[in-house]
Amino acid sequence: MTRRSTAALAISILLAVGHTWPLATDLGGLSRHDNADTTLNTWALAWIAHALPSQPLGVFDAPIFHPEKRTLAYSEPLLVPGLAAVPLRAAGLSATATYNVVVLLGFSLSAWAMWRLVAAWTGDEVAGAVAGAAFAFNAHLLTRFAHVQAIHAEAVPIVLLGLDRLVTRGRVRDGLLLGLGLWLTGLTSIYQLAFVSGATVAGLAFRAGEWRGRAATTLASASIGVLAALAALAPVLWQYYAVSRDLGVERSLGESAAMAATWRDYLATGGRLHYAAWSHAFFDGSAALFPGIAVTGLSLVAIARAGTQRGRVVMLVGIAAVGLVMSLGPALPTYEWLYDAVPLIRSMRAPARWGILVLTAAAALAGLGVAALRRQRASRVAATIGLAAFAAVTAEAWRAPMAFTPTPPIAPIYNRLAALPDAVLVEFPTFPSAQANLNAPYLLAQTVHFHPIVAGYSGLTPPGFDARLADLATLPAEAARRQLVALGITHVVLHLDLLRAVVSPAALDALDEVPWLEPAFEDARTRVYRVTAAAAARR
Q1: What is the pTM assigned to this prediction?
Q2: 3-state secondary structure of 527
Q3: Which of 23, 29, 266, 456 is the most buried (most CB within 10 A)?
Q4: Which residue from 129, 216, 5, 170 is spatially nearest to 392, judged by alpha carbons?
Q5: Is 518 helix (H, G, I), strand (E, B) or coil?
Q6: CA 177, CA 175: separation in Å to the nearest integer?
Q7: What is the reported pLDDT for 25?
Q8: What CA–CA distances, in Å, run from 313 to 324, 365, 506?
Q9: DSSP codes, 40-109
Q10: pLDDT value at residue 19
Q11: Cβ(152)–Cβ(193) under 8 Å?
Q12: For residue 539, what pLDDT band results from cuts at 50, 70 and 90?
């Protein structure tokens, strides 16, 4: 990297540390495991880091919801951030510390990528810095700590760069650059892939006047890039197609309407400056999409003083318009038309997240606006404008110190379970689909052993899950024994602190007398039984 690029990355890292402070002071001890989605994604990164080096073709067959297959595809793929987790786990970091480092990396790379894009467009490093800060540390992403897939948006500027070059040059290499951005995005997040696909269509459509004279060349180059991305993503997309087919995944318009944005969300931010003064009246924690006063003002400057950047400004405004319309969900008829026509839209539960395109476009426009204000100014004036813009964008988004919770300890008994060969576990209590978030601690514990477990938590729940749990809940009755055998369960894990609230000590102790359960080991809080061969032999 060049000296400027290295400096930009270093500043981006400092911004990530500052915006998430005090996270960097205790990467393993601070977390947001009070949100089950944080635990899910912590587990997913740890599983990917575990599976990629040893069984890359089986990475989607994650060992939750045993005996189901393709369970990683119940949520986002996370393969790009998961790849970053590989050396961290190999170095001995805990699952939580790994997650936190990958989050900081996502914020840093997203800021750096947008910085480099706008600096390349304008020749102005300060404009790039403002755009990078506005893009990575916006109101939405700073409320998505539990969703590392959203924070890792570093491929989005690659898509914008590919689009811009396609429109202005139309070469095959430009189409392949666009395809690279789409591929990296799809490896990270299916939601984000939908967003940048919409941005691609909008970008080409709103700048059609620039490439219409060489339409055949431009569209051919774009097609080559998109098809290359689809071919490279095919193994991943197949997993999601198979899950959708097998589980009948389709979000209703009613679900989409419930998680669509309204005008109130575009006034919502968790930034301390605005939240305390007025935005708390609009913030409900679901979709904070306020761009900020400084970003909005600088975007308007970019539009008013587009000049030689007119094509890029038009493209970004078009992308913002698509994001705004789609974020409103079924409130506008365009969403229902796309819902009927595009299967990917039918699988999306939260249309409000399309609003990230508004914030993305606004960040890039803000950078163009700063460049326009600084252009042909005296160096001292230009420096003052740049510093003021950067400070204002940062101050408006600032939420630090962020609230974190202590990382819950993982019971030492899981280290003993990790030493067992080919174990398959059922843990009690295990919670049905209506309370599946309460199974999240079992996923965190699984990062120690990665034996298959019957429990699970994710964006989806397999249809047979509750029926299996209903049988297992009758332990030690015959229905439970049959289910244990059918599932190939080797060990039953009892979490005594949780069970004692609902099961008598006598009933727990009576399990010692079950002929096909053999006490294996226990501590003050956990008891483990081995399922013996007698369980399968019994008729």
Answers
A1: 0.96
A2: strand
A3: 456
A4: 129
A5: strand
A6: 5
A7: 98
A8: 16, 7, 72
A9: HHHHHHHHHHHHHHH-GGGTTS-SSSTT-S-GGGGS---HHHHHHHHHHHHTT--HHHHHHHHHHHHHHH
A10: 98
A11: no
A12: low
Instruction: Choose among 446, 407, 464: nearest CA to 62.
Output: 446
Of the chain, the percentage scoring pLDDT greater than 70 comes to 99
Cis bond upstream, residue 476 (ω within 30): yes
Average pLDDT value over all residues in the chain: 95
Contact 192, 154 (CB under 8 A): no
Structure tokens at 136: 């990575």
User: Which of left, alpha, beta for 376 (phi over 0: left; psi -120 to 50: alpha)?
Assistant: left
Mean pLDDT, rounded, for 494-505:
90
**Phi, psi angles (nearest 5°) of residue 265:** -65, -30
Nearest to 517, CA basis, from 488, 473, 474, 481: 481
Task: Tell whether the torsion through CA atoms of 395, 397, 399 and 405 is positive or negative.
Answer: negative
Cis-peptide into 429, omega within 30 deg: yes
pLDDT per position as a tens digit, 392-440 = 999 999 999 999 999 999 999 999 999 999 999 999 999 999 999 999 9
- Strand 405-406 to 517-522 pairing: unpaired
pLDDT of amino acid 346: 78
Q: How far apart are CA 219 and CA 171, in angstroms?
A: 10
CA distance 356 to 309: 22
Region of residue 513 (phi > 0: left; psi between -120 and 50: alpha; otherwise: beta):
alpha
Residue 538 pLDDT: 60
Are the C-beta atoms of residues 418 and 391 closer than 8 Å to each other? Answer: no
> What is the structure's pLDDT at 28?
97
Q: Which range among 91-95, 171-175, 242-246, 309-313 shows the weakest confidence by mean pLDDT?
A: 242-246
From 444, 477, 440, 470, select the one nearest 455 (Cα to Cα).
Answer: 440
Nearest to 164 by CA among 314, 321, 4: 314
77 Cβ neighbours under 8 A, 6+ residues apart: 186, 187, 188, 189, 190, 236, 239
